[in-house]
Amino acid sequence: MMKGIMIQGTSSDVGKSLITTGICRILANEGLRVAPFKSQNMTNLSYVTPDGKEIGIAQGIQAEAAKTPATVMMNPILLKPRSGQRAEIVLFGEVIETLSGRSYRKSFYHKGLAAIRKALDNLEQAFDLVVIEGAGSPVEMNLKDRELVNMKVAEMANVPVVLVADIERGGVFASIVGTLELLEYEERQRVKGIIINMFRGDLTQFSGGIQWIEERTGVPVLGVVPYLENHMIDMEDSLSLQRSSRKNAEEMRATAGILTGDFSDLRDIEMLSKKLPDREAKPLSQLKEQKYNEVAEHLLSHIDWAKLKQIMLEWNQ
Asked: What φ, ψ does residue 149 adopt, rounded to 5°?
């Protein structure tokens, strides 16, 4: 039986990719075989697996954080937006067709479910734990009947869910309560924890907020994670340098021993490292490892890791 966790969000851009990446690195550092998973990703930022296949950049990055080679099983469906409200469908790393959103929803749903089942079965056999990332919100009511990315996937994998909310933009209480209220009863029973992300300010001033959320929802708040500067995991499911920090980019080039070139993201670093001699490429690899460990350490410092791990390991026992 699969062991793992699913990270869902109250909306897009709440930091699901960051949290998923950090959990993957923490578990890998503990010596566990862990795999990231996202059933369907919509992005033009792709990652090439060792066997030459194409998946979403976020799952490639999360595989690196998990210290395991990326495979198409970690992101079986990749949608690459094209003009005219159409998207190129990449299934298990291979382009199969281009469809409109309406046609995709109507004709691809059952094929998508089969692909997700195949991928989950594969990961269950190969890994100790799977860390699943959702997409957008699990309560898009006009899309729920044929969704392939949130509670349907949690049900198929039979894993518990942690809900992530972004406090930076305001409205965190409404977004958490609203999301939980709109879930079906069975779906809500899967939500075993809440993480407040992107907090700025004095954490001690939010203790009353934690108490209110727990009393109102009955779901424990597993942590309040402060905003992490220059973590390199972009909110659009890509791993990128924070362009607002030119100093950080300069420090990275200096660390890598590279005096020319402009790294827009770690994909640039990865591509460059493949072209350099080993002695020059090594600092680039070390730089990436440093960033994954920084994210993991930041997460460990601000969440109840023992409780989160207990939720993962004791589900279904």
From this structure: -130, -15
What are 223's two structure tokens? 């942590």
Integer CA distances (angstroms), 11 to 7, 36, 60, 165, 289, in order: 12, 20, 22, 8, 29
For residue 224, give the CATH number of its domain: 3.40.50.300
pLDDT attached to residue 284: 65
Flag whether the pTM goes above 0.85. yes
**CB neighbourhood size of 88 (10 A):** 15
Predicted confidence (pLDDT) per residue in 174-185, tens digit: 999 999 999 999
**Sign for the pseudo-dihedral over CA of 268, 270, 271, 276:** positive
In a domain, 58, yes or no: no
Instruction: Return the closest-CA partner of residue 126 out of 66, 52, 78.
Output: 66
Give strand ranges (E) for the chain: 4-9, 34-37, 40-42, 46-48, 54-56, 77-82, 86-91, 94-100, 129-133, 161-166, 191-199, 221-226
Distance (Å, rounded) from C-alpha 19 to C-alpha 14?
10
Residues 62 and 131: beta-carbon distance below 8 Å? yes
Whether 164 is covered by a domain: the verdict is: yes
Quote the mean pLDDT of the chain.
87
The identity of residue 158, as a single letter, is: N
Burial of 196 (0-12, 13-18, 19+ CB in 10 A): buried
The total number of structural domains in the chain stands at 1
Contact predicate 98/88, CB 8 Å: yes
Q: Helix, strand, or coil here: 130?
A: strand
Paired tokens of 247: 């100093």
Contact between residue 225 and residue 198 where contact means Cβ atoms under 8 Å apart: yes
| CB of 315 closer than 8 Å to CB of 159 | yes
